[in-house]
Inverse folding.
């Protein structure tokens, strides 16, 4: 049973491999390949295959256990599976003949038979015979695998007869064949299967193989297998075929010819090689070793397969080649990097063209070696070449190996470098030459587009040389220079016209009338017109200037670091010794405040960000401010916090202040709501006076992502909220900062908190009274203009050089004390040196005994600022005028300096002031004695000045409705009321930019009251009765009077009585009465309602009051004007400088007035502004026009855009500003008859403008009259047809079509080729669409007369002024019909084409507007040298734009198309009030402009203003 269960053993077969053997004489010097065949079959792996097996052995080796004194070798056995799955084991025996290495005769063996008989033996026996592996095994059997022949004996089952078919090794093939034939005869006797193995077929001789096949064919059932042991071809097949002959049950193998089998085998090898190479490619480090990689890959199937087929040696060679390639690739990349870095090194070491232009490369190398920077660019290696050293592995060393420079590549780089320097030098020269060319072109204005200038420089040599990018870069640089210069000059002009701005009320925004006045005055200036094309920037500068007038501080000073306040503080800090107290800190030791507790209120993490920024600037929560260390305790509160600030208020933590940070309207709204809650709770529970007076500081976070368009809006709204809260507002400082918060902002906010805390705790004494000022006998303010061309120490030298000069009190960084004997006693004089903008607050609010007003005689703006400041100074205060220049010679050598010095001296004479001059080149005038007479005059008038100041303060405290500062949030705000609190009485800020009763942003309900002029500036449309809204009239300085308004303005402030009487006197003795449509107010109410900047015919004059003549200036027509000081009743108790207008009990008492009413120069300056603003009527007309005349006239800038500072070219055809008012024109003609007389000069006959001929060759087609180029059958010139057809077929969607210039050479070539052959195909020329478009435009430009006849230009312009769109288009249609028939046909053809181009604007970006800009000069042939023509260029362009847009209407009886551009094409609505809506979408650039804000925000988005 057990025997049956045992698995049967696989059959075992013994195969004897036989063939030619014997001595070298018998077989030649090599065998027939029996050993190799056995080796490849038994051990097929490439690493186990040995191609050399010797048969010459020593006696010892022959007697070893492997040979075992036998002439046969046991190769071992192989387990093999057939196709049918049956396994068998094949034992391989090789019959050979071993030769003695001594005698070279066969070794003596136990079997002495010859080889033929011995090889045919079917039974073999050899005790303990070991398996043979290779020749090296002999004698070292213990080092190899030891396997014995089974049982020491084997029975041979078949024979494998080997025949060498190669060329042989000194052997004849016929002899081998004879030997094989004899051997076969002997083998066949054994009756065992025999197969012939044709060996070495890889070196096969064809006829040998054929003879073998012929030999086999003569034998019965003798099969020939063509083999190659070297390539392992058919080796296994021959053994398998033999086994099949032994066991007929097995499938018969297919015998494949050698070549086919070889191809199959090689394909396996190639596939395995590819896989292995890909595997090797994964190695990227050329430092990798074979040992490391082979261990890593040994289990990979692709690796194993390749090793089996090709062996480890080949695999290692493949790996080595790959590593070498990696190394060479690395070297190549390093070399490429070095070569690429060489130009930079040459630019560093050899940047001077003059030095190296004539040097050879070898000479240049010597020069480089001497450079100090040589070692930083190059490295000199000890061993060369560099690519065979370890320098190739120093990746971080970017220095170039010096021996690399000896290569041709490096020399070529040097040559290119020299050529680059030459071309760059030439390029720079040409750029500078082109820059000078631009500077010579006078008509280039700031903001002028490059496209408008290019046509004037297209023939310039430098322009042709440089690239398009260079030309644009040079032009951009030129534009930056002229724009910067124009802006500087514009800013200087604003300072020169300071009278226009410094009569503005600091508690209110300028009215629309005031803005119109400003524009009207400035528009006469060339510096204003210079920025015509940069109107938004001009408006921005103007608004910025007005904003500075509202909020003048050192930080916002338009002169930057040249601010007089900054320079004075720096000079005094360095010059005066700090003896009794420090002056570095405004609060130095004035209170015991060492720790500051702060809330930080914000939204969306802003509070925490600010807290983190403060901690970053602190050291262990200690912050250094103005020389003192403060401990900070910060409590950030976010919008998501569920607690109110009052709930966080504990006995252990009482905040000194609250920082409120915002960066959006939402966060500002949140701040306003939170502050309202805090104040409401403080008012209700009355828990802490300290809490009720908590200091809030608004901080605007920087928009660091980009310059936000909302920044002006945020700044404006934040400032408004700060005004309402009566708290500081910390703006974003000028400049670019990477963080949201700047150190200057934090310090400014902390100083504000300290100041508020000291004020709340009464640490700092209140505003000084006269008694408190006993230490200073006189308080003098010296004013100087920021940015004046003189040093501060020059004007301070009369004081600082004195031995009696000392430091002022702590905190007064801009003051000094002067001890000087005046009269009989020594007096202490406090000199406070301020800029004019800082002096305004002092002038209104503080006691000043005298002013020293300094101006530069070299600068008109300095005198303008002095006049503006002096005009508002009370005439009781003594004034010293100081002109500053270099030397006395300037007065005689420079007319401008002479004029300004004369004007200053003249003003001083008029107001009885002192005048002196300081010369920078003279020492005498720097002595203190210069001001001795002035100090004496001040001392003499001291008591009168102080009495006036005290009485003025008393009146101001009694009549709070006209306070210098803005009202509290509770006072008059209709939008939001803070809860009343008895402790909620915070002091107002010193400079309030926005008043309570005036809003830049009208509420939605008030939108109907406003309209926009053509630049988008709002102005009110009033309909209020004359006696309404008295409570809103709180301007302190009257704006200029508007001519004949239809109704009174609600926001215009009161006139000074003196100015009122002056105007009345200047008008005439018999003013017209007020029209009956406005009821006259009773006498007792007249001052309450009539104190406006009104025409004189609306002012009720009181009777029975005496008029005191105050001054007798003369107007420009030398008429005496009586300036009267009327004594009238004022029920409000208000007057501009705070003096009461109540009737004085003593009529003989003289009340203080202002210097502007005492100086004819100052007064006439203000009057001249008024006259220029209202120059459309005479002085008498301005105030006496009847109701009927006013009704039919324009109302200045309110209704007539022509009187507004609008650019007339912006309107286009539909611009209402281009319309004419017949009545207005008639009045202008009546007003200025003298100009008509002047114009009556002999007129020259106008010449047709002919541009220069562009062509440089003669043509019988181009430049010919249009009539000569067409026929009735073909009304369109053939060239025009070809160009249009080409463009519409190939390039209708080309971006920038007709705008982007084509190649001029191609354009000329197109016309030249057409001249020679009218049938030429443009497609065959290979030219671009832009070149064809340029040639088409050139065709029209070359016509003798423009396509649009000159004779119809004027009609087109007049028709474009028709306001009704339909009427205007029909009129234009009639004008087009007047064209010559030839011109009409061609004009219709080209306009139709342009219309098709404009329809593709989404891809070619060429709208009708863009196309008209490109084409109108070509079609209408403008005369750019004619200044009158330049003023209407925009209208010409708009005409062509209209033709393109309305093409179907004009030429094909189509419908009128709605124009896409509302500004250029939309007629104005019939109702002027509704004009706001279509104008709102205009996007004007920052800074803040009212019309921009209005379109985005309601009047008060916060709900608290």
């Amino acid at each position: 049973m057990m025997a049956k269960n045992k698995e049967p053993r696989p059959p075992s077969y013994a195969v004897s491999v036989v063939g030619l053997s014997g001595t070298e004489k018998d077989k030649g010097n090599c065998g027939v390949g029996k050993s190799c065949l056995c080796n490849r079959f038994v051990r097929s792996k490439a690493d186990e295959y040995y191609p050399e097996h010797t048969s010459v052995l020593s006696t010892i080796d022959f007697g070893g256990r492997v040979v075992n004194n036998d002439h046969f070798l046991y190769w071992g056995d192989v387990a093999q599976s057939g196709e049918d799955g049956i396994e068998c084991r094949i034992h391989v025996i090789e019959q050979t003949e071993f030769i003695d290495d001594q005698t070279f005769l066969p070794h003596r063996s136990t079997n002495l038979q010859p080889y033929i008989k011995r090889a045919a033996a079917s039974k073999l026996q050899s005790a303990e015979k070991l398996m043979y592996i290779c020749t090296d095994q002999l004698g070292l059997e213990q080092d190899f695998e030891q396997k014995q022949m089974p049982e020491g004996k084997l029975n041979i089952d078949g024979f494998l007869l080997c025949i060498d078919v190669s060329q042989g090794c000194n052997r004849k093939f016929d002899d081998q064949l004879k030997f094989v034939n004899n051997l076969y005869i002997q083998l066949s006797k054994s009756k065992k299967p025999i197969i012939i193995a044709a060996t070495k077929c890889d070196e096969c001789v064809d006829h040998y193989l054929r003879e073998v096949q012929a030999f086999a064919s003569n034998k019965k059932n003798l099969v020939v297998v063509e083999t190659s042991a070297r390539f392992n071809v058919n080796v296994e097949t021959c053994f398998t075929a033999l086994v099949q002959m032994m066991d007929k049950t097995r499938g018969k193998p297919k015998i494949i010819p050698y070549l086919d089998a070889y191809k199959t085998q090689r394909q396996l090898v190639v596939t395995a090689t590819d896989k292995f190479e890909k595997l090797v490619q994964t190695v990227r480090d050329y430092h990798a070793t074979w040992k490391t990689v082979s261990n890593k890959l040994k289990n990979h199937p692709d690796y194993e397969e390749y090793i089996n087929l090709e062996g480890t040696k080949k695999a290692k060679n493949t790996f080595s080649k790959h590593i070498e390639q990696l190394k060479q690739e690395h070297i190549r990349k390093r070399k490429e990097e070095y070569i690429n870095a060489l130009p930079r090194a040459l630019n560093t070491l050899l940047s001077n063209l003059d030095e190296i232009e004539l040097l050879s490369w070898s000479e240049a190398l010597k020069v480089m070696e001497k450079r100090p920077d040589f070692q930083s660019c190059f490295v000199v290696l000890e061993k060369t070449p560099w690519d065979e050293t370890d320098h190739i592995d120093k990746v971080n060393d970017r220095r170039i190996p010096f021996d690399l420079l000896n290569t041709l590549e490096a020399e070529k780089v040097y040559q290119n470098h020299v050529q680059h320097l030459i071309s760059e030098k030439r390029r720079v020269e040409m750029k500078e030459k082109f820059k000078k060319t631009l500077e010579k072109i006078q008509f280039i204005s700031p903001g002028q587009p490059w496209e408008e200038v290019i046509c004037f420089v297209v023939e310039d040599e430098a322009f042709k040389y440089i690239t398009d990018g260079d030309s644009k870069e040079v032009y951009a640089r030129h534009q930056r220079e002229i724009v910067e210069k124009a802006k500087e000059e514009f800013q200087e002009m604003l300072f020169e016209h300071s009278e226009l701005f410094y009569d503005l009320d600091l508690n209110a925004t300028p009215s629309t009338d005031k803005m119109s006045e400003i524009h009207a005055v400035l528009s006469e200036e060339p510096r204003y017109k210079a920025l015509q094309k940069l109107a938004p920037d001009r408006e921005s500068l103007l608004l910025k200037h007005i904003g500075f007038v509202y909020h003048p501080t050192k930080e916002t000073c338009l002169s930057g670091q040249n601010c007089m306040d900054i320079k004075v503080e720096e000079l005094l800090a360095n010059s005066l010794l700090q003896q009794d107290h420090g002056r570095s800190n405004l609060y130095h030791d004035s209170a015991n405040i060492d720790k500051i507790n702060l809330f930080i209120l914000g939204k969306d993490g802003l509070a925490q960000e600010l807290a983190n920024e403060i901690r970053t600037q602190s050291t262990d929560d200690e912050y250094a401010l103005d020389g003192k260390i403060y401990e900070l305790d910060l409590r950030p509160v976010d919008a998501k916090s569920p607690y109110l600030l009052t709930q966080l208020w504990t006995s252990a933590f009482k905040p000194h202040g609250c920082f409120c940070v915002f960066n959006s309207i939402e966060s500002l709204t949140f701040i306003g709501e939170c502050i309202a809650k805090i104040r409401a709770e403080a008012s209700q529970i009355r828990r802490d006076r300290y809490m009720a007076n908590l200091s809030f500081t608004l901080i605007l976070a920087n928009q660091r992502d980009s310059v936000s368009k909302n920044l002006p809006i945020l700044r404006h709204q934040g400032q408004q909220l700060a005004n309402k809260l009566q708290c500081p507002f910390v703006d974003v400082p000028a400049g670019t900062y990477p963080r949201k918060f700047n150190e200057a902002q934090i310090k400014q906010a902390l100083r504000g908190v300290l100041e508020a805390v000291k004020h709340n705790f009464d640490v700092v004494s209140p505003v000084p009274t006269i008694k408190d000022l006993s230490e200073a006998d006189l308080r003098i303010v010296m004013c100087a203009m920021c940015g004046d061309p003189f040093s501060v120490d020059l004007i301070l030298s009369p004081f600082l050089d004195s031995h009696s000069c000392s430091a002022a009190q702590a905190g007064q960084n801009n003051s000094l004390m002067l001890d000087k004997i005046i009269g009989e006693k020594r007096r202490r004089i406090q000199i406070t040196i301020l800029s004019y903008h800082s002096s305004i607050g002092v002038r209104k609010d503080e006691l000043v005994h005298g002013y020293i007003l300094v101006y530069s005689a070299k600068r008109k703006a300095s005198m303008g600022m002095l006049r503006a400041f002096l005009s508002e100074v009370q005439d009781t205060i003594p004034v010293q005028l100081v002109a500053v220049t270099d030397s006395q010679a300037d007065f005689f050598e420079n007319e401008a300096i002479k004029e300004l010095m004369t004007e200053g001296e003249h003003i001083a004479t008029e107001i009885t002031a002192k005048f002196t001059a300081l010369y920078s080149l003279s020492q005498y005038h720097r002595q203190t004695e210069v001001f001795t007479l002035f100090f004496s005059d001040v001392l003499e008038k001291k008591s009168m000045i102080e009495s006036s100041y005290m009485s003025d303060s008393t009146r101001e405290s009694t009549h709070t409705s006209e306070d210098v500062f803005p009202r509290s949030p509770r006072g008059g705000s209709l939008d939001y009321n803070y809860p009343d609190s008895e402790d909620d009485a915070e002091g107002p800020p010193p400079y309030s930019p926005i008043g309570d009763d005036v809003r830049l942003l009208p509420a939605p309900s008030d939108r109907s009251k406003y309209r926009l002029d053509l630049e988008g500036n709002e102005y009110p449309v009033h309909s209020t009765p004359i006696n309404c809204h008295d409570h809103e009239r709180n301007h302190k300085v009257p704006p200029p009077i508007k001519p004949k308004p239809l109704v009174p303005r609600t926001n215009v402030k009161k006139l000074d009585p003196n100015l009122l009487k002056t105007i009345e006197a200047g008008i005439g003795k018999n003013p017209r009465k007020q029209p009956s449509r406005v009821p006259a107010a009773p006498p007792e109410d007249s001052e309450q309602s009539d104190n406006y900047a009104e025409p004189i015919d609306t002012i009720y004059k009181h009777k029975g009051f005496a008029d005191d003549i105050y001054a007798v200036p003369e107007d420009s027509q030398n008429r005496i004007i009586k300036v009267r000081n009327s004594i009238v009743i004022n029920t409000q108790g208000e007057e501009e400088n705070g003096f009461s207008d109540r009737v004085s009990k003593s009529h003989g008492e003289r009340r203080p007035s202002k210097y502007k009413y005492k100086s004819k120069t100052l007064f006439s300056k203000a009057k001249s502004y008024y006259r220029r603003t209202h120059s459309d009527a005479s002085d008498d007309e301005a105030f006496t026009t009847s109701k009927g005349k006013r009704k039919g006239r324009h109302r200045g800038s309110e209704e007539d855009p022509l009187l507004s500072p609008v650019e007339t070219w912006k309107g286009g055809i539909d611009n209402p500003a281009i319309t004419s008012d017949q009545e207005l024109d008639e009045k202008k003609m009546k007003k200025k008859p003298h100009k008509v007389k002047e114009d009556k000069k002999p007129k020259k006959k106008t010449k047709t403008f002919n541009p220069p001929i562009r062509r440089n060759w003669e043509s019988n087609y181009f430049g010919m009259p249009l009539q000569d180029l067409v026929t009735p059958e073909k009304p369109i010139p053939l060239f025009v047809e070809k160009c249009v057809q080409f463009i519409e077929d190939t390039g209708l969607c080309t971006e920038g079509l007709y705008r982007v210039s084509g190649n001029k050479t191609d354009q000329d070539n197109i016309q030249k080729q057409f001249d020679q052959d009218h049938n030429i195909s443009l497609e065959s020329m290979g030219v671009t669409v832009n070149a064809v478009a340029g040639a088409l435009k050139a065709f029209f430009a070359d016509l003798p007369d423009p396509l649009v006849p000159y004779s119809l230009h004027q009609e087109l312009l007049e028709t474009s002024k028709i306001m009704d769109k339909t009427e205007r288009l029909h009129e234009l249609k009639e004008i087009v019909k007047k064209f010559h028939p030839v011109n009409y046909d061609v004009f219709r053809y080209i306009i139709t084409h342009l219309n098709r181009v404009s329809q593709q604007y989404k891809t070619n970006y060429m709208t009708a507007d863009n196309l008209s800009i490109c084409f109108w000069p070509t079609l209408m042939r403008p005369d750019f040298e004619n200044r009158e023509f330049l003023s209407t260029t925009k209208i010409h362009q708009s005409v062509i734009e209209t033709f393109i847009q309305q093409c179907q209407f004009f030429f094909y009886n189509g419908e009128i198309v709605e124009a896409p551009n509302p500004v250029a094409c939309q007629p104005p609505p019939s109702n002027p009030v509704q004009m706001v809506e279509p104008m709102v979408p205009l996007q004007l650039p920052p800074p803040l402009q009212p019309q921009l804000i209005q379109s985005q925000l309601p009047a008060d988005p916060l709900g608290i203003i």
